[in-house]
Automatic annotation (TrEMBL), chain A:
Residues 181-194 have a biased composition (Polar residues). This is THUM3 protein. Residues 126-208 are annotated as: Disordered. InterPro entries: RlmKL-like_Mtase (IPR000241), RlmKL-like_Mtase_CS (IPR053943), SAM-dependent_MTases_sf (IPR029063), THUMP_dom (IPR004114).
Automatic annotation (TrEMBL), chain B:
GO terms for molecular function: protein heterodimerization activity. It comes from Erythrocercus mccallii. GO terms for biological process: rRNA (guanine-N7)-methylation; tRNA methylation. Belongs to the TRM112 family. Coiled coil: none annotated. InterPro entries: Trm112 (IPR039127), Trm112-like (IPR005651). It comes from the Eukaryota. This is Multifunctional methyltransferase subunit TRM112-like protein.
Length: 505, 91
């Protein structure tokens, strides 16, 4: 599908030589991250790449500059969902009030943009992709692949392992990498509507759209091949996200017209399913960013109708773990682990801590065990076929009565049941205080901490107010999980000691 | 189940005296390769540390049980996962 060697007429300089040149360039990279964890992602970038990041006002994005040869390390960032190379950013773009004029401006913009270097970076990125092991293999290092932790079939798993675009084109024209069935964030435009942002009331947010050239209504999957005859023409599509209440046009219109101009300029072929180049046009009020995607877009399932256990995306799990600042030899417990997303991320990234996953459901425990075995088997440094030597274990237990010694755990990190999807709001009312008490008992006084994700913020706040003698709220991160407003709470354990197993001490 | 996990587990059968649930007795026939007590200056003993690391993190109980020292109640371990759930009557 990736025609790494293709040369587009009208834009010479793509091919292996260009990739070589590309390595020498400084690339401005844009990364999408779970909303609320921009700072965490910036810290990871600083730590692993040595670059400072800018956090965009368009939530869920950070920007940083790296030499293009660092792309492999960029792909290994754990807090990042998707990557793109920036063609140009406009901090304060003035849109004309009249729709036709505004769209004409966008069209005219295309030929003025500095495409050459970003395209070289894109080319380099392609050559990296080809070297990677096939996506279907579980790859511990690729966050997107790790999303394939499956909760089993109940999330409608059939199409999730589908890396063949052709099968997708009927109902979902977006050629994507599945994210393993968990609730993903909404398309960016919708996220901004839900977010705590300046223009909340009048904001129009459009979902991602793809351009369709007027003549060709998207080359259908049938011809699949990248080459038609002699000249191998690149295929592209434009994805536009637009947020703001002062634009006179929709994202559909912008994508269409911008795409038309791109086609004109490069003589590429528009193809919304089988594309080589994905051009991103992100408009957030007066901030406009044109980019080229370096990862395939996460699957944003527009009709999330499945009910059942959800798997936390690993980028969010990573962000939560980072928040509690794990130190070597820390004991980290997820007492409601579900399919094990958090402990797996933990063991992979913090191997000098010890991770224990637990759940009361036999299905969850079994699935977590399977997920751990199959993922960690691919760990390069281990050639054994089990999780021996990996600092991770699973126990079946009841969160309200944990078989763990008092004060023996340094960190508790978990995704608390959301009232709407598991149990009920009423159940949470009783469950939350009991959870907080037990988590307080097992946690080391003074130095212990907890990082808890919940959507039931009211219930949580109420429960927390009753356990003020053991937990203090240190930080709150507002996040968006599958379109729902959730919060991640960082709590610190007070110095007060717990008595041995009294129900309400 | 790894030995390090066992170190953190305690029986939670109701009505035990304080501390009566720990340590759970591991039931299987495998002898340990460790001395009964650490030697003085064990931190510098590389060989000992290797064996200790091995036993803590690289040995797993796949099938067996954990027995509560005070009550005798057994918690089964199957496929490496201990089941510490109490029955409705017990809890």
């Amino acid at each position: 599908r990736q025609p790494g060697m293709a040369e587009a007429a009208g834009d010479a300089g793509l091919g292996p030589a260009a990739a070589q040149e590309g390595a020498e360039l400084a690339a401005v990279i844009g990364a999408t991250v779970p909303t609320g964890f921009e700072q965490t992602a910036a810290e990871e970038v600083q730590e692993k790449l040595g670059s400072a990041s800018r956090i965009s006002r368009d939530r869920g994005k950070i920007y940083f500059e790296v030499p293009a040869r660092s792309l492999p390390q960029v792909h290994r960032l754990r807090s990042v969902d998707n990557l793109f190379v920036v063609v140009q950013e406009f901090k304060d773009y003035q849109f004309k009030e009249n729709k036709e004029d505004a769209l004409k401006d966008l069209e005219d913009l295309v030929k003025k943009l500095p495409w050459t270097n970003p395209l070289k970076v894109w080319e380099l990125n392609n050559s990296l992709k080809k070297k990677k092991t096939k996506r279907k293999k579980h790859n511990l290092q690729n966050p997107a692949s790790r999303e394939k932790l499956s909760g089993g079939g109940e999330e409608g798993g059939a199409d999730q392992n589908n890396t063949n675009d052709q099968e997708d084109c009927a109902q979902n024209p977006v050629a994507v990498e599945p994210t393993g069935g968990q609730d993903t964030e909404n398309p960016q435009g919708v996220t901004s509507r839900n977010g705590v942002e300046e223009e909340e009331d009048n904001e129009q947010s459009d979902v991602k759209v793809e351009v369709q050239a007027s003549a060709e209504s998207g080359a259908k999957a049938g011809d699949g091949q990248t080459g038609e005859g002699e000249a191998k023409v690149l295929r592209f599509r434009v994805t536009c996200n637009r947020a703001g209440d002062k634009h006179s046009f929709t994202s559909n219109e912008a994508a269409r017209d911008f795409g038309g101009a791109v086609q004109e300029h490069f003589q590429w072929k528009a193809d919304m399913t089988n594309f080589d180049v994905e051009v991103l046009l992100n408009i957030h009020n007066n901030e406009v960013v044109v980019g080229i995607a370096l990862t395939e877009e996460s699957l944003h399932r527009r009709n999330i109708t499945h009910f059942g256990p959800t798997t936390l995306r690993s980028t969010l799990a990573y962000g939560m773990l980072r928040l509690c600042d794990p130190q070597p030899t820390d004991i980290i417990v997820d007492p409601m682990c579900g399919t094990g997303a958090i402990p797996i991320e933990g063991a992979a990234e913090w191997p000098y801590c010890y991770h224990i996953a637990g759940d009361n459901s036999p299905q969850a425990v079994k699935r977590a065990a399977n997920n751990i075995c199959s993922l960690l088997r691919k760990n390069e440094s281990k050639d054994s076929s089990s999780a021996l030597g990996v600092p991770l274990d699973i126990v079946q237990w009841d969160i309200c009565n944990l078989p763990l010694r008092t004060g023996s755990v340094d960190i508790v990190v978990t995704d608390m049941p959301f009232g709407k999807r598991i149990g009920s709001k009423k159940k949470n009312w009783d469950l939350y205080p009991a959870c907080l008490m037990e988590m307080g008992r097992i946690c080391t006084p003074g130095t212990g901490r907890a990082v808890l994700l919940t959507q039931d913020k009211k219930c949580f706040a109420k429960a927390l107010s009753r356990v003020g003698h053991i937990w203090r709220r240190a930080q709150t991160v507002w996040v968006n999980v599958g379109g729902l407003h959730a919060a991640v709470y960082l709590l610190r354990r007070t110095w007060e000691r717990a008595e041995e197993r009294r129900p309400f001490w | 189940m790894k030995l390090l996990t066992h170190n953190l587990l305690s029986s939670h059968v109701p009505g035990l005296r304080p501390g009566g649930g720990f340590p759970l007795r591991i039931e299987l026939g495998h002898p340990s390769e460790l001395p009964p007590e650490p030697l003085p200056n064990y931190e510098a003993d590389e060989e000992f540390l290797r064996r200790l690391h091995h036993v803590l993190l690289e040995v797993e109980v796949l099938e067996g049980s954990l027995q509560c020292p005070d009550s005798g109640r057994r918690f089964p371990i199957s496929r490496g996962v201990p089941n510490m759930l109490l029955t409705e009557d017990e809890a």
